[in-house]
């Protein structure tokens, strides 16, 4: 059996997003244990010139939702990047997961032969579908997921590799 574009694009991103949701719960528990407002963690970053935790969640969900929709030739569901609280971020994750889980594997039939266009830095970039999936979508998605984990870990939240790999 060969690896399908659906198998590469959807199930692993759903698992990773569910894991992000679980670490959000750990972040809240950690902050509450320190008698701190969990929202403080949402604005945390590893370096002064990088995007904060909340934006890492935004980018991960945008990449998963937009990437799968482009590959499946579907309309990309819009979610404004206004979430700042844990509850809003969890809602964003839930909506993205629900969208991804609603996509049928058959929708990806013939995806390998498609051309994907995405606006990057204000310019339309065009990729063969395989290059888009394996060279852009997946690395970009995991960059933001990994950075989100690293920000929380850097701030003392007790998470580790098993939290990243949960569900395998």
Task: Offer a concise description of the structure.
The chain has 168 residues and is mainly α. It has 7 helices and 2 strands; from the N terminus they run αααααββαα.
Give an overview of the whole structure.
The protein has 168 residues and is mainly α. The protein has one domain: Four Helix Bundle (Hemerythrin (Met), subunit A), CATH 1.20.120. The protein is built from seven helices and two strands; from the N terminus they run H-H-H-H-H-E-E-H-H. The protein has a two-stranded antiparallel ribbon. Helix 2 packs antiparallel against helix 4, helix 2 runs parallel beside helix 6 and helix 4 packs parallel to helix 5. The chain is elongated. The relative contact order is 0.21.
CATH topology, what is it called? Four Helix Bundle (Hemerythrin (Met), subunit A)
**Major β-sheet profile:** 2 strands, antiparallel
Oligomer: single chain
CATH superfamily: dinb family like domain
**Can you give the helix content as a percent range?**
55-70%
Number of domains: 1
Q: Which labels suit this protein?
A:
single chain; two-stranded antiparallel sheet; mainly alpha; elongated; 60% helix; Four Helix Bundle (Hemerythrin (Met), subunit A); 7 helices; 168 residues; 2 strands
Chain-wise SSE layout:
Elements: H1 5-9, H2 11-33, H3 39-42, H4 53-72, H5 86-102, E1 115-120, E2 123-128, H6 129-154, H7 161-165
Antiparallel strand pairs: 1-2
